[in-house]
Amino acid sequence: MINIKNLNSKILNKEAKVGVIGLGYVGLPLALLISNKGFKTYGFDIDDKKIKSLKEKKSYISHIPSEKIKESLNFYPTGDFSKLKICDIVIICVPTPTTETNEPDLSAVVSTSEVVKKYLHKGEVVILVSTTYPTTTRDVVKPILEKSGLKCGKDFFLAFSPEREDPGNKVYSTENIPKLVGGVDRISTEVVCLFFSQIVNKVIPVSSAEVAEASKVLENTFRAVNIALVNELKMLFDRMGIDIWEVIDAASTKPFGFMTFYPGPGWGGHCIPVDPFYLSYIAKKYDFSTKFIELAGQINIRMPEFVVEKVSEALNQRKKVLNGAKILVLGLSYKKDIGDLRESPSLRVIELLEKKGSKVDYNDPYIEQIPPLRKYKFLKRSVELNEKNLKRYDCVIIITDHSCYDYKMILENSNLIVDTRNAIRRNLPNYKNLQKVVQA
Ligand SMILES: NC(=O)c1ccc[n+]([C@@H]2O[C@H](COP(=O)([O-])OP(=O)(O)OC[C@H]3O[C@@H](n4cnc5c(N)ncnc54)[C@H](O)[C@@H]3O)[C@@H](O)[C@H]2O)c1
Question: Does 130 contact ligand 1 (Cβ within 6 A)?
Fold first, then answer.
């Protein structure tokens, strides 16, 4: 058994060296925060381009300014994983996507655990942050680490601590979002709580790694199901001639028992469309079928088709058809004010429109060009958003309501707008002539 007092004082004196593996949307801001709190922090990634960029003090994430990297003097990005042997605390932030058949793909967690095992030493603390189904930390990561011959809870410590980061959120960031910690044993929970209490404002211990894992998937499943509910009601109310946005505003005046969710063109990002299926997967192993999750998936996945139907109807009313129509998609990222394209419904909308013969361009101030993606290979660059360009299109579709858009200019210069976010009415509440705006 290692001397836990020594480990604790290393943490309290900020002498513990930290390694963060996976420097993406979650790992990079976390590593920068830890280093700014005074811990020598090594950042590891298999993507050489990211490491090169960080060594040059350049950010590759649109909402993280390069200045932040320049200011982080305690941060050492490296592709040399052997430096893990000098790290006292190792934090795993690698991707946890799903396969094409919506099964969990834990390959990055498994291969990272293998690398951590290779350099694992007595007194080391390992923290899994990647979102996953309950039991992963104990049943997947721990056995790999124990192949080193070291014993969890005795020679090294292991916990799950989910990231609740909301990229681009101006109010909540890693530092002021309460951090859940669930260890695979009591000492692991305590030591990881002690570490995170040096980093974030509030740490909440829970009784096990499984509770921490399950709470993260509950949070995201809750969002997925509620987004599906408002999206379904949007389609119903549209048929009934009732304005869903006004309905939501009205319902939101209830001071208790109602939480506001807004409809949109579908769901997107690395979390909401993915994490619930991690839960479905493990549920099957317990002979349990998660019907809410499956249903939410069916509804949210169908939303881009609804948007395209609304575009088709709106063009039809103007004696035009989708085939040959020139269409401009505004906003590609899955949510506003960030440049993250992962699972964005905009891509499916573009695909559906192009299948119908439309000529589609896009503008997104955060995405200069669409990189080759697993599912989509669009060769498109963002077109300039100006009066002359807007007039060229038969229809403009607002998919992502970036705050920097000049909605007045968009409204005044477009021939037809299909608005999936209620952006025009919300941003121009006093504008009366909205005949060319169709809600979708
Ligand atoms: N993006 C979010 O808003 C968010 C929020 C909460 C939780 N999460 C979860 O956090 C985890 C990471 O998500 P992300 O958005 O940061 O992903 P990301 O794709 O932005 O970043 C992951 C990084 O890990 C690197 N990587 C992949 N395999 C690796 C390996 N074997 N070894 C080292 N590095 C490796 C990639 O090159 C990439 O830089 C996921 O489990 C995700 O579900 C994400």
Answer: yes
Pair (90, 144) in one structural domain? yes
Is the CB of residue 177 below 6 angstroms from any atom belonging to ligand 1? no
Are 32 and 145 members of one domain? yes
- The three-state secondary structure class of 159 is strand
**Number of independent structural domains in the chain:** 2
Report the candidate in 124, 197, 188 with the shortest Cα–Cα distance to residue 159: 188
> Has residue 421 been placed in a domain?
yes
Same domain, 242 and 196: no
Q: Is the CB of 366 under 6 A from ligand 1?
A: no
Percentage of the chain lying above the pLDDT 90 cut: 95
Q: How far is the CA of 51 from the centre of ligand 1 (A)?
A: 14
Q: Could you tell me what percentage of the chain is helix, strand and coil, using 3-state DSSP and rounding each to the nearest 5?
A: 40, 15, 45
Query: In this predicted model, what pLDDT tens digit does every residue of 42-98 receive, in sequence order?
Result: 999 999 999 999 999 999 998 899 999 999 999 999 999 999 999 999 999 999 999
Alpha-carbon dihedral sign for residues 383, 386, 391, 396: positive
Helix axes 209-240, 244-251, angle to 10 degrees: 130
In a domain, 41, yes or no: yes
- Identify the CATH number of the domain in which residue 164 sits: 3.40.50.720
Whether the CB-CB separation of 356 and 323 falls below 8 Å is answered with yes
Cα distance between residue 383 and residue 328, in whole Å: 9
168 and 288 inside one domain: no
Cα distance between the two ends of the chain = 61
> 303 with 363, same domain?
yes
* Domain, as residue range, for 100: 4-207
pLDDT tens, residue by residue, 137-151: 999 999 999 999 999
Amino acid letter, 78: T
